[in-house]
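Can anyone check this?
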Amino acid sequence: MIVIGLTGGIGSGKTTVANFFKELHIPVYIADDEAKQLMVRSKVIKRKLIALFGDDAYINEELNKPFIASKIFNNSDYLQKMNAIVHPKVASHFKRWLKKQDSPYVIKEAAIIFEHNKEAHYDFVITVVANLEERITRVIKRDNSSKSKIESIIKNQMSDEEKIKKSHFVITNANLADTKKQVRKTHQSIIKHINKLKN
């Protein structure tokens, strides 16, 4: 099974692009969403996160997202430790999910493929890019976040220029109709490549 990585900086529109691929009947695995669900579902993850962050990590059996965010925001050590707890479980979950799929290829959406040097895990990587001001505006609307907080997150992520150099496909998400066309074109290129491999 061909696995395509879908990545891009915060607010670039990865979810929008993922949904356009779903419209083409391509299964999409959203790593961040699955991670959040596993943090609530998995007793092992829960126990380890409470050991790491303390009892405030959960409120009424739900993940205390503002508390966790405040802990990891300026502490890369906490972030690395949390990722070491959560990422292996997400990877196992993805493998089980992959076995159930029946399509020419699947997409795994993950925000930090290049930052974690995970590009070798994918057959191709698609990077979604968008205008910086547009990205900031989107995230302020979506997360009710401050501009300075978003800018700090962007600074910690690899630049679009670096990501583009490492990517097989780039989708510029500025205009929805145009983004949809680019998704269709990328899909056709991937199918063409898969067909070549079969022959």
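Reply from J.R.: I decoded it. The two ends are 16 Å apart (CA to CA).
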